[in-house]
Specification:
The chain has 521 residues and is an alpha/beta fold. The protein is built from 10 helices and 27 strands. Strands 3, 5, 6, 8, 9, 10, 12, 13, 14, 15 and 16 form an 11-stranded mixed beta sheet that branches. Strand 8 (85-96) and strand 9 (102-120) form a beta hairpin. Helix 5 (190-203) crosses helix 10 and helix 8 (293-313) packs parallel to helix 9. The radius of gyration is 25 Å and the shape is elongated. The two termini are 21 Å apart. The model is unreliable at 3-24 and 514-521 (pLDDT under 50).
Protein backbone atom coordinates (compact mmCIF):
# COMPACT_ATOMS: atom_id res chain seq x y z
CA UNK A 1 0.00 0.00 0.00
CA UNK A 2 2.90 2.37 0.65
CA UNK A 3 3.41 5.22 3.06
CA UNK A 4 0.50 7.62 3.49
CA UNK A 5 1.37 11.31 3.40
CA UNK A 6 -1.15 14.06 4.01
CA UNK A 7 -0.79 17.22 1.97
CA UNK A 8 -2.91 20.20 0.96
CA UNK A 9 -5.09 20.25 -2.12
CA UNK A 10 -4.41 23.27 -4.30
CA UNK A 11 -7.58 24.69 -5.82
CA UNK A 12 -8.19 26.79 -8.90
CA UNK A 13 -8.39 30.06 -6.98
CA UNK A 14 -4.93 29.52 -5.46
CA UNK A 15 -3.38 28.70 -8.84
CA UNK A 16 -5.00 31.73 -10.48
CA UNK A 17 -3.85 33.99 -7.67
CA UNK A 18 -0.27 32.72 -7.97
CA UNK A 19 -0.31 33.25 -11.73
CA UNK A 20 -1.51 36.85 -11.37
CA UNK A 21 1.09 37.61 -8.72
CA UNK A 22 4.01 36.95 -11.09
CA UNK A 23 2.53 38.31 -14.34
CA UNK A 24 3.93 41.79 -13.76
CA UNK A 25 7.62 40.75 -13.89
CA UNK A 26 9.91 38.35 -15.67
CA UNK A 27 9.77 34.87 -14.19
CA UNK A 28 11.08 31.61 -15.63
CA UNK A 29 8.95 28.47 -15.67
CA UNK A 30 9.08 25.97 -12.81
CA UNK A 31 12.02 23.82 -14.01
CA UNK A 32 14.37 26.73 -14.70
CA UNK A 33 16.69 27.51 -11.81
CA UNK A 34 20.37 27.67 -10.87
CA UNK A 35 22.20 24.37 -11.24
CA UNK A 36 19.73 22.71 -13.59
CA UNK A 37 20.49 20.27 -16.42
CA UNK A 38 19.17 20.89 -19.95
CA UNK A 39 18.54 17.98 -22.29
CA UNK A 40 21.13 17.49 -25.01
CA UNK A 41 20.42 16.61 -28.64
CA UNK A 42 16.89 17.99 -29.01
CA UNK A 43 15.20 21.42 -29.13
CA UNK A 44 14.93 22.86 -25.61
CA UNK A 45 11.75 24.81 -24.73
CA UNK A 46 12.29 27.61 -22.23
CA UNK A 47 9.21 29.38 -20.93
CA UNK A 48 7.82 31.61 -18.24
CA UNK A 49 5.83 34.80 -17.64
CA UNK A 50 6.36 38.52 -18.21
CA UNK A 51 4.28 41.62 -18.89
CA UNK A 52 1.76 41.12 -21.68
CA UNK A 53 3.35 42.01 -25.01
CA UNK A 54 6.90 42.02 -23.62
CA UNK A 55 9.73 40.93 -25.91
CA UNK A 56 11.66 38.16 -24.14
CA UNK A 57 15.15 37.11 -25.20
CA UNK A 58 16.59 33.78 -24.09
CA UNK A 59 20.31 33.10 -24.58
CA UNK A 60 22.49 30.14 -23.71
CA UNK A 61 25.65 28.62 -25.13
CA UNK A 62 25.76 30.92 -28.17
CA UNK A 63 22.10 30.40 -29.08
CA UNK A 64 19.69 33.32 -28.72
CA UNK A 65 15.92 33.46 -29.31
CA UNK A 66 13.46 36.36 -28.95
CA UNK A 67 9.72 35.83 -28.53
CA UNK A 68 6.74 37.97 -27.54
CA UNK A 69 4.66 37.35 -24.42
CA UNK A 70 0.97 36.80 -25.16
CA UNK A 71 -1.97 38.75 -23.74
CA UNK A 72 -1.75 36.75 -20.50
CA UNK A 73 1.99 37.26 -20.16
CA UNK A 74 2.99 33.75 -21.21
CA UNK A 75 6.03 33.17 -23.43
CA UNK A 76 8.06 30.26 -24.74
CA UNK A 77 11.30 30.13 -26.74
CA UNK A 78 13.02 27.06 -28.19
CA UNK A 79 16.78 26.74 -28.14
CA UNK A 80 18.53 24.71 -30.82
CA UNK A 81 19.74 21.21 -29.84
CA UNK A 82 22.71 21.44 -27.47
CA UNK A 83 25.86 19.38 -27.06
CA UNK A 84 26.51 17.74 -23.69
CA UNK A 85 28.61 19.91 -21.41
CA UNK A 86 29.73 19.64 -17.80
CA UNK A 87 30.74 23.33 -17.81
CA UNK A 88 28.44 25.41 -15.67
CA UNK A 89 27.15 28.22 -17.89
CA UNK A 90 24.55 30.96 -17.52
CA UNK A 91 21.06 30.87 -19.01
CA UNK A 92 20.09 34.52 -19.52
CA UNK A 93 16.56 35.91 -19.78
CA UNK A 94 15.74 39.49 -20.68
CA UNK A 95 12.25 41.02 -21.06
CA UNK A 96 11.49 44.43 -22.54
CA UNK A 97 7.93 45.48 -21.67
CA UNK A 98 5.78 47.72 -23.93
CA UNK A 99 6.34 50.63 -21.50
CA UNK A 100 10.12 50.29 -21.91
CA UNK A 101 10.77 48.51 -18.59
CA UNK A 102 13.59 45.98 -18.84
CA UNK A 103 13.78 42.93 -16.55
CA UNK A 104 16.59 40.37 -16.51
CA UNK A 105 17.22 37.00 -14.89
CA UNK A 106 20.38 34.91 -14.87
CA UNK A 107 20.32 31.22 -14.05
CA UNK A 108 23.84 30.11 -13.20
CA UNK A 109 25.77 26.83 -13.30
CA UNK A 110 23.52 25.26 -15.95
CA UNK A 111 24.76 21.97 -17.45
CA UNK A 112 23.71 20.01 -20.55
CA UNK A 113 23.25 16.26 -20.54
CA UNK A 114 20.54 13.64 -20.09
CA UNK A 115 17.30 14.50 -18.29
CA UNK A 116 14.88 11.94 -16.86
CA UNK A 117 11.67 12.11 -14.87
CA UNK A 118 11.18 9.66 -11.96
CA UNK A 119 7.61 9.08 -10.84
CA UNK A 120 5.24 6.62 -9.19
CA UNK A 121 4.31 5.69 -5.66
CA UNK A 122 6.25 4.66 -2.56
CA UNK A 123 8.81 2.32 -4.12
CA UNK A 124 9.92 5.18 -6.36
CA UNK A 125 9.59 7.78 -3.60
CA UNK A 126 11.62 5.65 -1.15
CA UNK A 127 14.73 7.74 -0.36
CA UNK A 128 18.30 6.63 -0.80
CA UNK A 129 18.71 7.22 2.94
CA UNK A 130 16.56 8.55 5.76
CA UNK A 131 15.34 8.12 9.33
CA UNK A 132 12.95 5.22 8.67
CA UNK A 133 14.87 1.93 8.83
CA UNK A 134 12.17 0.17 6.79
CA UNK A 135 11.88 2.86 4.16
CA UNK A 136 15.30 3.45 2.65
CA UNK A 137 17.90 1.62 0.61
CA UNK A 138 20.03 -0.95 2.40
CA UNK A 139 23.27 0.53 1.06
CA UNK A 140 22.07 4.11 0.96
CA UNK A 141 24.34 5.57 3.62
CA UNK A 142 27.46 4.16 1.92
CA UNK A 143 26.22 5.17 -1.51
CA UNK A 144 25.68 8.78 -0.48
CA UNK A 145 29.00 9.02 1.35
CA UNK A 146 30.88 7.52 -1.62
CA UNK A 147 29.13 9.45 -4.40
CA UNK A 148 30.64 12.83 -5.16
CA UNK A 149 29.01 13.42 -8.54
CA UNK A 150 28.36 17.17 -8.93
CA UNK A 151 27.35 16.61 -12.58
CA UNK A 152 24.29 14.70 -11.35
CA UNK A 153 21.58 17.18 -10.40
CA UNK A 154 18.13 16.45 -9.02
CA UNK A 155 14.85 18.01 -7.97
CA UNK A 156 12.83 16.19 -5.29
CA UNK A 157 9.32 17.64 -5.43
CA UNK A 158 7.18 18.08 -2.35
CA UNK A 159 3.69 16.48 -2.26
CA UNK A 160 1.02 18.62 -3.87
CA UNK A 161 -2.40 17.81 -5.30
CA UNK A 162 -4.47 20.15 -7.45
CA UNK A 163 -7.70 20.12 -9.43
CA UNK A 164 -6.06 22.44 -11.98
CA UNK A 165 -2.53 22.36 -13.43
CA UNK A 166 -0.02 24.24 -11.25
CA UNK A 167 2.23 26.11 -13.66
CA UNK A 168 3.97 28.66 -11.44
CA UNK A 169 6.48 28.23 -8.67
CA UNK A 170 10.15 27.40 -8.22
CA UNK A 171 12.38 24.42 -7.53
CA UNK A 172 15.85 23.80 -6.12
CA UNK A 173 18.29 21.71 -8.14
CA UNK A 174 20.75 19.84 -5.91
CA UNK A 175 23.99 18.04 -6.63
CA UNK A 176 24.57 14.40 -5.81
CA UNK A 177 27.28 14.99 -3.22
CA UNK A 178 27.48 14.17 0.50
CA UNK A 179 27.36 17.89 1.30
CA UNK A 180 24.19 18.56 -0.68
CA UNK A 181 22.53 15.46 0.68
CA UNK A 182 23.10 16.70 4.22
CA UNK A 183 21.00 19.81 3.55
CA UNK A 184 17.41 19.86 4.86
CA UNK A 185 14.60 18.92 2.50
CA UNK A 186 13.32 15.91 0.65
CA UNK A 187 15.98 13.36 -0.34
CA UNK A 188 16.47 11.84 -3.75
CA UNK A 189 14.67 8.59 -4.51
CA UNK A 190 16.89 5.51 -4.15
CA UNK A 191 15.82 4.18 -7.56
CA UNK A 192 16.40 7.59 -9.17
CA UNK A 193 19.78 7.94 -7.44
CA UNK A 194 21.09 4.59 -8.64
CA UNK A 195 19.60 5.18 -12.09
CA UNK A 196 21.38 8.53 -12.42
CA UNK A 197 24.65 6.95 -11.29
CA UNK A 198 24.33 4.16 -13.87
CA UNK A 199 23.63 6.59 -16.72
CA UNK A 200 26.31 9.08 -15.67
CA UNK A 201 28.99 6.44 -15.12
CA UNK A 202 28.21 4.78 -18.46
CA UNK A 203 28.06 7.95 -20.58
CA UNK A 204 30.24 10.46 -18.72
CA UNK A 205 27.73 13.28 -19.26
CA UNK A 206 25.67 15.31 -16.77
CA UNK A 207 22.39 13.77 -15.67
CA UNK A 208 19.33 15.61 -14.39
CA UNK A 209 16.53 13.88 -12.46
CA UNK A 210 13.14 15.40 -11.69
CA UNK A 211 11.50 13.31 -8.98
CA UNK A 212 7.74 13.52 -8.54
CA UNK A 213 6.62 10.46 -6.60
CA UNK A 214 4.38 9.82 -3.61
CA UNK A 215 3.44 6.79 -1.54
CA UNK A 216 0.00 5.16 -1.60
CA UNK A 217 -1.09 6.82 -4.84
CA UNK A 218 -2.93 5.51 -7.87
CA UNK A 219 -1.85 5.62 -11.50
CA UNK A 220 -5.06 7.57 -12.14
CA UNK A 221 -3.91 10.56 -10.12
CA UNK A 222 -0.70 10.80 -12.21
CA UNK A 223 -2.49 10.64 -15.58
CA UNK A 224 -3.16 13.95 -17.41
CA UNK A 225 -6.64 14.52 -18.79
CA UNK A 226 -5.42 14.31 -22.39
CA UNK A 227 -4.21 10.76 -21.77
CA UNK A 228 -7.75 9.43 -21.55
CA UNK A 229 -8.58 10.53 -25.08
CA UNK A 230 -8.94 7.46 -27.29
CA UNK A 231 -9.10 5.02 -24.35
CA UNK A 232 -12.86 4.23 -24.23
CA UNK A 233 -12.54 1.63 -21.45
CA UNK A 234 -11.49 4.45 -19.10
CA UNK A 235 -14.37 6.81 -19.88
CA UNK A 236 -15.38 6.80 -16.21
CA UNK A 237 -12.06 8.43 -15.34
CA UNK A 238 -12.08 10.84 -18.28
CA UNK A 239 -15.39 12.27 -17.09
CA UNK A 240 -14.68 12.21 -13.35
CA UNK A 241 -16.15 15.40 -11.76
CA UNK A 242 -13.19 17.22 -10.22
CA UNK A 243 -15.26 20.36 -9.62
CA UNK A 244 -17.26 18.71 -6.83
CA UNK A 245 -16.05 19.17 -3.23
CA UNK A 246 -14.66 15.91 -1.90
CA UNK A 247 -16.78 13.87 0.51
CA UNK A 248 -16.13 10.36 1.83
CA UNK A 249 -19.18 8.97 0.03
CA UNK A 250 -17.29 9.59 -3.25
CA UNK A 251 -14.87 6.77 -2.44
CA UNK A 252 -14.90 4.06 -5.09
CA UNK A 253 -11.75 1.99 -5.39
CA UNK A 254 -9.10 2.89 -6.46
CA UNK A 255 -10.20 6.43 -5.60
CA UNK A 256 -9.91 6.21 -1.81
CA UNK A 257 -9.28 9.88 -1.10
CA UNK A 258 -9.17 13.28 -2.76
CA UNK A 259 -5.49 12.84 -3.64
CA UNK A 260 -6.37 9.68 -5.60
CA UNK A 261 -8.73 11.40 -8.02
CA UNK A 262 -7.81 11.33 -11.72
CA UNK A 263 -5.17 13.92 -12.80
CA UNK A 264 -4.71 15.67 -9.42
CA UNK A 265 -1.08 14.61 -8.86
CA UNK A 266 -0.23 15.23 -12.50
CA UNK A 267 -1.66 18.71 -12.03
CA UNK A 268 0.16 19.37 -8.77
CA UNK A 269 3.53 17.67 -9.25
CA UNK A 270 4.20 17.21 -12.98
CA UNK A 271 2.24 19.65 -15.17
CA UNK A 272 4.50 22.58 -14.30
CA UNK A 273 7.48 20.77 -15.86
CA UNK A 274 5.83 20.19 -19.24
CA UNK A 275 6.96 20.62 -22.00
CA UNK A 276 10.47 20.37 -20.56
CA UNK A 277 12.91 18.63 -22.91
CA UNK A 278 13.80 15.22 -21.47
CA UNK A 279 14.80 11.77 -22.65
CA UNK A 280 12.14 9.87 -20.79
CA UNK A 281 10.43 8.66 -17.64
CA UNK A 282 11.19 5.90 -15.16
CA UNK A 283 8.06 4.68 -13.37
CA UNK A 284 7.48 2.41 -10.36
CA UNK A 285 3.84 2.08 -9.36
CA UNK A 286 0.98 -0.41 -9.30
CA UNK A 287 0.51 -1.60 -5.72
CA UNK A 288 -2.38 0.78 -5.05
CA UNK A 289 -4.18 -0.41 -8.18
CA UNK A 290 -3.47 -4.08 -7.48
CA UNK A 291 -5.98 -4.79 -4.73
CA UNK A 292 -8.82 -6.01 -6.96
CA UNK A 293 -8.81 -8.25 -10.03
CA UNK A 294 -10.89 -5.69 -11.93
CA UNK A 295 -8.26 -3.03 -11.34
CA UNK A 296 -5.42 -5.37 -12.19
CA UNK A 297 -7.05 -6.12 -15.54
CA UNK A 298 -7.62 -2.44 -16.27
CA UNK A 299 -4.00 -1.56 -15.54
CA UNK A 300 -2.82 -2.09 -19.11
CA UNK A 301 -5.31 0.48 -20.39
CA UNK A 302 -4.27 2.82 -17.60
CA UNK A 303 -0.61 2.50 -18.57
CA UNK A 304 -1.56 3.42 -22.15
CA UNK A 305 -3.44 6.48 -20.91
CA UNK A 306 -0.56 7.53 -18.64
CA UNK A 307 2.06 7.18 -21.36
CA UNK A 308 0.00 8.90 -24.08
CA UNK A 309 -0.82 11.75 -21.74
CA UNK A 310 2.78 12.34 -20.67
CA UNK A 311 4.04 12.03 -24.24
CA UNK A 312 1.52 14.58 -25.51
CA UNK A 313 1.98 17.01 -22.63
CA UNK A 314 5.77 16.97 -22.99
CA UNK A 315 5.46 17.28 -26.77
CA UNK A 316 7.70 14.27 -27.24
CA UNK A 317 6.46 11.49 -29.49
CA UNK A 318 9.60 9.48 -28.69
CA UNK A 319 9.36 9.87 -24.93
CA UNK A 320 10.94 6.80 -23.35
CA UNK A 321 8.97 5.05 -20.62
CA UNK A 322 10.85 2.43 -18.63
CA UNK A 323 8.98 0.99 -15.69
CA UNK A 324 9.29 -1.57 -12.90
CA UNK A 325 7.13 -4.68 -12.72
CA UNK A 326 5.71 -5.25 -9.26
CA UNK A 327 7.94 -7.44 -7.08
CA UNK A 328 6.68 -10.34 -4.92
CA UNK A 329 4.90 -9.46 -1.69
CA UNK A 330 1.94 -10.86 0.28
CA UNK A 331 -0.50 -10.50 -2.58
CA UNK A 332 -1.00 -12.11 -5.98
CA UNK A 333 -0.14 -9.44 -8.56
CA UNK A 334 -0.34 -11.95 -11.45
CA UNK A 335 -2.98 -10.23 -13.57
CA UNK A 336 -1.40 -6.80 -13.09
CA UNK A 337 2.04 -8.17 -13.94
CA UNK A 338 0.63 -9.67 -17.15
CA UNK A 339 -0.92 -6.29 -17.98
CA UNK A 340 2.44 -4.60 -17.41
CA UNK A 341 4.22 -7.10 -19.66
CA UNK A 342 1.57 -6.76 -22.37
CA UNK A 343 1.85 -2.96 -22.43
CA UNK A 344 5.64 -3.15 -22.65
CA UNK A 345 5.34 -5.53 -25.61
CA UNK A 346 2.86 -3.27 -27.43
CA UNK A 347 4.43 0.17 -26.89
CA UNK A 348 7.70 0.65 -28.84
CA UNK A 349 8.91 3.40 -26.50
CA UNK A 350 8.27 1.40 -23.33
CA UNK A 351 10.10 -1.44 -21.59
CA UNK A 352 9.61 -3.22 -18.28
CA UNK A 353 12.15 -4.24 -15.65
CA UNK A 354 11.13 -7.66 -14.32
CA UNK A 355 11.61 -7.88 -10.54
CA UNK A 356 10.06 -11.25 -9.71
CA UNK A 357 13.30 -12.44 -8.09
CA UNK A 358 14.10 -9.51 -5.81
CA UNK A 359 11.06 -8.65 -3.73
CA UNK A 360 10.54 -9.14 0.00
CA UNK A 361 7.47 -11.19 0.98
CA UNK A 362 7.44 -9.44 4.36
CA UNK A 363 7.92 -5.86 3.15
CA UNK A 364 6.16 -4.06 0.31
CA UNK A 365 9.22 -1.79 0.16
CA UNK A 366 12.16 -4.13 -0.58
CA UNK A 367 15.37 -2.35 0.33
CA UNK A 368 17.53 -3.33 -2.65
CA UNK A 369 16.76 -0.50 -5.05
CA UNK A 370 20.04 -0.77 -6.92
CA UNK A 371 18.93 -3.85 -8.87
CA UNK A 372 15.72 -2.05 -9.87
CA UNK A 373 17.69 0.91 -11.20
CA UNK A 374 20.26 -1.27 -12.94
CA UNK A 375 17.55 -3.13 -14.88
CA UNK A 376 15.81 0.12 -15.79
CA UNK A 377 19.11 1.65 -16.86
CA UNK A 378 19.84 -1.36 -19.06
CA UNK A 379 16.86 -0.39 -21.21
CA UNK A 380 18.16 3.15 -21.64
CA UNK A 381 21.73 2.08 -22.34
CA UNK A 382 20.69 -0.44 -24.99
CA UNK A 383 17.83 1.46 -26.62
CA UNK A 384 18.96 5.08 -26.34
CA UNK A 385 22.70 5.15 -25.82
CA UNK A 386 24.17 2.57 -28.19
CA UNK A 387 25.12 -0.31 -25.87
CA UNK A 388 24.23 -2.88 -28.51
CA UNK A 389 26.00 -5.79 -26.82
CA UNK A 390 23.79 -5.39 -23.74
CA UNK A 391 20.67 -7.57 -23.48
CA UNK A 392 18.10 -5.42 -21.69
CA UNK A 393 14.95 -7.55 -22.00
CA UNK A 394 14.06 -10.40 -19.70
CA UNK A 395 13.40 -13.70 -21.49
CA UNK A 396 9.87 -14.19 -22.81
CA UNK A 397 8.02 -17.18 -24.22
CA UNK A 398 7.58 -16.91 -27.98
CA UNK A 399 6.44 -20.49 -28.67
CA UNK A 400 4.75 -23.27 -26.72
CA UNK A 401 4.08 -26.72 -28.07
CA UNK A 402 3.02 -30.11 -26.70
CA UNK A 403 5.28 -33.09 -27.28
CA UNK A 404 3.63 -36.20 -25.82
CA UNK A 405 3.53 -35.81 -22.04
CA UNK A 406 5.76 -32.72 -22.09
CA UNK A 407 5.28 -29.08 -22.95
CA UNK A 408 8.14 -27.27 -24.65
CA UNK A 409 8.74 -23.54 -24.20
CA UNK A 410 10.95 -21.62 -26.63
CA UNK A 411 12.29 -18.33 -25.26
CA UNK A 412 13.27 -15.02 -26.82
CA UNK A 413 16.00 -12.75 -25.40
CA UNK A 414 18.10 -15.67 -24.24
CA UNK A 415 20.83 -17.91 -25.62
CA UNK A 416 20.54 -20.21 -22.61
CA UNK A 417 18.59 -20.38 -19.36
CA UNK A 418 19.29 -21.67 -15.88
CA UNK A 419 17.62 -22.08 -12.49
CA UNK A 420 18.96 -20.51 -9.33
CA UNK A 421 17.48 -21.31 -5.93
CA UNK A 422 19.26 -20.62 -2.67
CA UNK A 423 18.92 -24.28 -1.68
CA UNK A 424 20.48 -25.34 -5.00
CA UNK A 425 17.32 -27.22 -5.97
CA UNK A 426 16.10 -27.46 -9.55
CA UNK A 427 12.50 -26.71 -8.61
CA UNK A 428 10.79 -23.80 -10.41
CA UNK A 429 7.19 -22.60 -9.98
CA UNK A 430 5.78 -23.81 -13.31
CA UNK A 431 2.30 -25.32 -13.62
CA UNK A 432 0.68 -27.26 -16.43
CA UNK A 433 -2.98 -27.91 -17.23
CA UNK A 434 -4.78 -30.18 -19.67
CA UNK A 435 -8.27 -30.20 -21.14
CA UNK A 436 -9.89 -30.35 -17.69
CA UNK A 437 -8.25 -27.05 -16.70
CA UNK A 438 -6.73 -28.43 -13.49
CA UNK A 439 -3.33 -26.91 -12.77
CA UNK A 440 -0.58 -29.24 -11.58
CA UNK A 441 2.98 -28.44 -10.48
CA UNK A 442 5.48 -29.14 -13.24
CA UNK A 443 9.16 -30.09 -13.30
CA UNK A 444 11.85 -29.11 -15.76
CA UNK A 445 13.06 -32.29 -17.45
CA UNK A 446 15.82 -31.02 -19.70
CA UNK A 447 18.39 -30.31 -16.99
CA UNK A 448 21.92 -31.50 -17.65
CA UNK A 449 22.70 -34.44 -15.40
CA UNK A 450 25.73 -35.73 -13.59
CA UNK A 451 26.56 -39.13 -12.13
CA UNK A 452 26.30 -39.29 -8.32
CA UNK A 453 26.23 -42.42 -6.19
CA UNK A 454 25.62 -44.57 -9.21
CA UNK A 455 22.65 -42.60 -10.58
CA UNK A 456 21.98 -39.64 -12.83
CA UNK A 457 20.84 -36.51 -10.98
CA UNK A 458 20.25 -32.93 -12.21
CA UNK A 459 23.29 -30.72 -12.32
CA UNK A 460 22.00 -27.80 -10.29
CA UNK A 461 24.74 -25.46 -11.41
CA UNK A 462 24.41 -25.81 -15.16
CA UNK A 463 22.49 -24.16 -17.95
CA UNK A 464 19.52 -26.06 -19.31
CA UNK A 465 20.27 -28.20 -22.33
CA UNK A 466 18.96 -27.14 -25.69
CA UNK A 467 19.76 -23.44 -25.32
CA UNK A 468 16.78 -21.16 -24.67
CA UNK A 469 14.38 -24.05 -24.31
CA UNK A 470 12.49 -25.38 -21.29
CA UNK A 471 10.82 -28.80 -21.31
CA UNK A 472 8.17 -29.40 -18.63
CA UNK A 473 6.26 -32.42 -17.34
CA UNK A 474 3.60 -32.76 -14.63
CA UNK A 475 2.98 -36.05 -12.82
CA UNK A 476 -0.43 -37.47 -13.74
CA UNK A 477 -0.90 -35.29 -16.83
CA UNK A 478 -0.77 -37.14 -20.14
CA UNK A 479 -1.59 -34.25 -22.47
CA UNK A 480 -0.49 -30.81 -21.26
CA UNK A 481 -2.02 -27.90 -23.13
CA UNK A 482 -1.30 -24.81 -21.06
CA UNK A 483 1.47 -23.46 -18.87
CA UNK A 484 1.79 -20.69 -16.33
CA UNK A 485 4.64 -19.41 -14.19
CA UNK A 486 4.64 -17.53 -10.86
CA UNK A 487 0.91 -17.77 -10.24
CA UNK A 488 1.26 -19.50 -6.86
CA UNK A 489 2.63 -18.16 -3.58
CA UNK A 490 5.36 -17.06 -2.87
CA UNK A 491 5.60 -15.82 -6.51
CA UNK A 492 9.41 -15.70 -6.43
CA UNK A 493 11.12 -16.32 -9.76
CA UNK A 494 14.20 -18.50 -10.12
CA UNK A 495 14.62 -18.96 -13.89
CA UNK A 496 17.18 -16.72 -15.58
CA UNK A 497 18.62 -16.10 -19.02
CA UNK A 498 22.34 -16.01 -19.67
CA UNK A 499 21.98 -12.21 -19.48
CA UNK A 500 21.26 -12.63 -15.72
CA UNK A 501 17.73 -11.26 -16.26
CA UNK A 502 14.82 -13.27 -14.81
CA UNK A 503 11.92 -14.88 -16.62
CA UNK A 504 8.74 -13.01 -15.63
CA UNK A 505 5.20 -14.22 -14.92
CA UNK A 506 3.24 -15.56 -17.90
CA UNK A 507 0.43 -17.83 -19.00
CA UNK A 508 0.48 -19.49 -22.45
CA UNK A 509 -1.39 -22.10 -24.43
CA UNK A 510 0.23 -24.69 -26.70
CA UNK A 511 0.06 -24.03 -30.43
CA UNK A 512 -2.86 -25.78 -32.11
CA UNK A 513 -4.95 -26.19 -28.96
CA UNK A 514 -8.66 -25.45 -29.31
CA UNK A 515 -10.64 -23.19 -27.03
CA UNK A 516 -9.92 -19.98 -25.18
CA UNK A 517 -7.77 -19.89 -22.09
CA UNK A 518 -9.59 -20.20 -18.82
CA UNK A 519 -9.49 -16.99 -16.79
CA UNK A 520 -7.03 -16.90 -13.94
CA UNK A 521 -8.68 -16.08 -10.66
Amino acid sequence: MGLKIRFPLVGFAVVLSAALSVAASLEPGIPFADGMVLQRGMPVPVWGSADAGAKVTVSFGGCERTVCADSEGRWMARLDPLEASGEGRTLRLCACSPDGTVSTRELRDVLVGEVWFASGQSNMDCPIWGDNARYRDAKGSMTVAMSRKPAIRYVANQPRSSVRPVTTGSVVWRKLTPEDFALPGKKISAVACYYALEIHNALGVPVGIVQSALGDTSIDAWTPACGYEGVPELADLATYPLDRPWTDDMKAFPITGEEQRPTVLWNGMVAGFAPMALRGVIWYQGCHNGYTIREQRRYGAKLRALYRGWSRAFGNGNLRFYFAMLAPWQRNWFELQLAQASFAAEEPNAAVAVLCDCGNPDDIHPNDKEIVAKRLAAHALRRDYGFEALEDDSPTVHACRAEGKTLVLELDHAKAVYVYNRNRSTEAPFELAGEEGVWLPAKIVNFPTERRDGRDVPDCGGFLTGGARIVLRADGLDRPLRCRYLYQRPWIGCVYADSSLPLGPFEVQAVGCDGASKETK
